[in-house]
Amino acid sequence: MSGDGDGKAVSAAVGFAGVRSVVPRPVAELGPLLDWLRAGRPAGERLDFTVGTALPDGRLDLCKQELGAEGAALIAEVLGQGPSPVRHLLLGTDGLGDEGAEAVAGGSGDVETLYLGCNGITAGGACRIADRLRASPQVVTGVWLKRNPLGSGGGRAAAELIDSARSLRTLDLVQTGLDPAGATVLADALLAAAGNGRRIERLFVGGNPLGADGAVPLAVVVAAGAIDELYVSAARLGDAGALRLADALERAPYGRLTRLSVASNGLGPRGTARLVTAATAAGVRVLDLGRVRAAAVLGAADNHVDLSAADTIAQALVGAEHRLTHLVLSHTGMRSREAHRLLDTAPRAITPTRFVLGQGIAASIKRRLESLTAHLPAPPLAPDVAAVRSVHRTARPGQAGHGVSDAPTP
Fold first, then answer.
1. For 216-258, what is each residue's pLDDT tens digit?
2. Helices within 170-237 (DSSP H only)
3. pTM of whole model > 0.85?
4. In this structure, what is the dihedral angle of CA atoms 134, 136, 139, 142, given to the nearest 10 degrees?
């Protein structure tokens, strides 16, 4: 693609999903980092350069470093010369455009994680990434494309990525404009990969206008047991979409889907209760019905639990042994009365469940529920998710932060 075309792609991304414009920094400032990369020495401790940060676990965090396509190409060129200590390459909000993303994918070398969120990458650019990965050694396990304007072609681009990256485990398409038609193409690719023994472990498709129609192909994937974790928050599913997922869970291989996030989907009491019941019967371990941080920006409605739904949830969790040990019910309108229904049955449950509850519930009820699950460990953080933690994406202006990166869901 020409430089002008790439500039148009980057410009089109400004304003899409709130992505800001990036003015590339002078490439001369990359000198110290490029020298370190050429030396091929691992980072025994955190190393902060004029541009970016290297971490001992193999992360090279270049998020929000204003690289531009030229700077990204220089990084990719050195990485491609290998061997390299970099295993996880984080390039969020760097103004890469299609041209820079393609260069990074083509020179990824031994990189396992490509975090390319908020870079003005179009569906065409994502297909170019797939082409470069197809011609590269198969080591990439995670591709993160959140908040890039893939639009109506996102499903086809995602299918190309699944086909080309044969070692892929994690695919992030959060807030990329994926629609129901694209979700159908994506689902077909996921099913084909699973049929060939290459199941994608986790899929992030939240923040997209999927609606109940978009839940149909996702339900087919769930019923087939083709993925382990599905994150579909703030996707306008409503009760109709939730019921389709619940039906799929009832047909799915037991224990295959381990995590399901349907936060901020405007589910009513019927949808929430049915989904919890189905997830409990299907062997799901973590179910999130709460609220995503970007709910207000996305205009995503909260889910709702009333007294009848709380009764149904309580009975589902106490009725038999199950695997649901973590249930998020914050921001669902629950008050002390509903929470007390959970407390009434929780002591009799064969399998304890940790409830994450919101405000408006008596502290005494929360304490008593928490005492029943104090021995339960927190849900583990998957290595692919830990690999995209950034010290720069959550930093205050002018300060490199040390916190966990923005959540993979919207």
1. 999 999 999 999 999 999 999 999 999 999 999 999 999 999 9
2. 180-195, 211-224
3. yes
4. -50
> How many Cβ atoms are within 10 Å of 213's Cβ, its own excluded?
18
Residue ranges in 49-106 assigned as alpha helix (H): 68-81, 97-106
d(CA 345, CA 338) in angstroms, rounded, equals: 12
Q: What's the CA gap between 215 and 242, in Å, rounded?
A: 8
For 44, 63, 91, 104, 184, the CA distances from 115, given in Å and listed in that order, are 22, 9, 6, 10, 24
Q: What is the pLDDT of residue 21?
A: 87
| Residue 17: both structure tokens together | 């999903």
Q: Which amino acid is at 198?
A: R
Between CA 335 and CA 182 the distance in angstroms is 39
Report the SS3 class of residue 32: helix
Provide the 8-state DSSP code for 151: G
Closest residue by Cα to residue 72 from 16, 25, 11: 25
Q: In this structure, what are the phi and psi dihedrals at residue 58, rounded to the nearest 5 degrees?
A: 95, 0
Cα 74 to its chain centre, rounded Å, is 28
**pLDDT score of 321 more than 90:** yes
Distance CA 134, CA 151 (A): 23
> What is the rounded CA–CA span in Å between residue 384 and residue 404?
14
